[in-house]
Please model this.
Amino acid sequence: MSNTQGEHAQIVKYQHPHAHHHAKSDTYFVFTNRGEAEKFKKDPSKRTIDVVQAYEVFKNLHNPSRPPEGELRNVFGTSDMETIVKKILTEGEIEEAKAVTHHG
Model:
């Protein structure tokens, strides 16, 4: 009954560069296995499937939800999840997952 996306996970968050600096809802993130995001940043040839817990992108740290495909396309220029995850891992900021309340 424990949530594996707690003590064994981190998140990598990506703030859209054109978002208003106060728009926290324009923060996109992925759940990663602890320590793997740092390894990916040092070696981007690492397989993303070994880094993330799932190919799922979330939006809004305090009330996580999955953004619609059209929104992902507008923000990342594609709806290809591999490309989006790689961009978040490459350009994003690593945080502890306990800062995020994840439901589901």
Q: What stands out?
A: The two ends are 12 Å apart (CA to CA).
